[in-house]
Give the backbone structure.
Amino acid sequence: VRAEEERQYTEYVSARLSSLRRTAFLLCGDEHRADDVVQAAITKLYVHWRRVRTVANLDAYVRAMVVRTFISEQRLGWFRRTSLVGAPEDTPDRPAPPAGEVETRMVLHRALSRIAPKARAVLVLRFLLDLSVADTAAALGCSPGTVKSQTAVGLANLRRQLGDQLPATVGKE
Amino acid sequence: MDTTGPDGAQLLAPLRDVEPVAPSTVDVRRAVLVGARRRRTRQAVSAAAVAAVVALVLAVVPAIADWRHDSAPPANQLTEFDVLRQRLTVGSAGGYTPVSIQTGRHEQRVLLRIAAEPAAAPSANVVLYAAGRAPELDLGDPAPDVYGHRSYWLTGVPDTQLAWEWAPDAWVVIQADAVGEQARVVVHRVALSVRTTGNLRQRLPFTVADGRRLAGVITPYGATSPSAGAFVVLDDTAGQVFVGVLAGPDVLTDVLSAPGTPNTQLDGRSAAVGASTVRIYDVGFGWDVVAEAVGAQPMPGLTALAQSVTVVAGADPRSWTADPLR
């Protein structure tokens, strides 16, 4: 029985690893921290796998685990210390987007990473992962009203962070 | 009504196709191994808890004196701390020595550095959480008790994070950058130097005029630490602001930015004013005033807040004030 559970778990997680890493990366703004968050979340998932594998929307449940793990680690305040390694030297190159796009993304991602964790999670879930207000509230374990207020606070802070660094192309499409 | 939807989607649109570039370091096999170990631990703890309840029901338990090293008051008295009182104390142990203490309503945090390296940045911390205030902790392997309190290694990276329940639903967590085979031994030694029953009044070498709520104070640890500065932490509607004095680089916190370059004059003194930081140089007693907004930059009124600081004492903590807010 356990072997079958493990197989199901491994199959499930492996198929979604890319999506989970992307969610964590958008939240953390740092690839190594993002991997730490995903590692912690999928470990928790294994502990509870027997119970949660049959929940109605398992993908949403696991995404919520990643988001909550991220917020927990921020509260612990250890995030500066747990990213102990730099990028491997043999990291393969990806096709480089145009320079302007790269700059815009970097500026925006850096600014996003300075927003308070809960507001940042709200912005990522709503505007980058396209969750509704209700689904965002469910993922964060808060009320829809809190999601709306955190959205307003997060966007205001993001604009303040960006200031005149905001490249002309952002928000003008 | 929520009118932020289109605005937010447009603002964040450039990040929609962002992906991690570095190869994944997530290890599914390791998650299975660690997860299985945690499952076994949880089952063992549950079984032990049931056995303990049965034993209590069956046995007549005499009233005994609390023999533990630091007995804790009931949890319902400990859901919040007094921000002007230091409850958490930490000794020099395991090669670490405390540098600073930060109080707060829900937690108190002591930063530690390697004892043999006086100029080193803090590389360990001990956090005391009030009852019900700790974040979700991934309890892993059982660790040796800390003066009779159940104790666990936390799962995650690094695997030398130690937590123990010092009172019902109230935890202490230690994280250190210790590495090597003895890392857990070192961390446990630090744990054995921790006490949770302190009641020391916090004092600061300045006063500040501000209507914001006091969220905590940061001071050097103990009378023997070099008094390199001190801060109050104030709540703001969109974050927190640290304001205080420094006599050089910041060694008390792992939060503040590096000092800026003077770019203006405030009250006749050189000052570095940035979007989220203000430093006014040489305000007296050898201090610079520093104010930094965390979580909401720029913060309106930050410069005025820095200007409202009045230093009242030098580096000797014995002459500091216990009432920092005017």
In short: Chain B is about 15% helix and 35% strand.
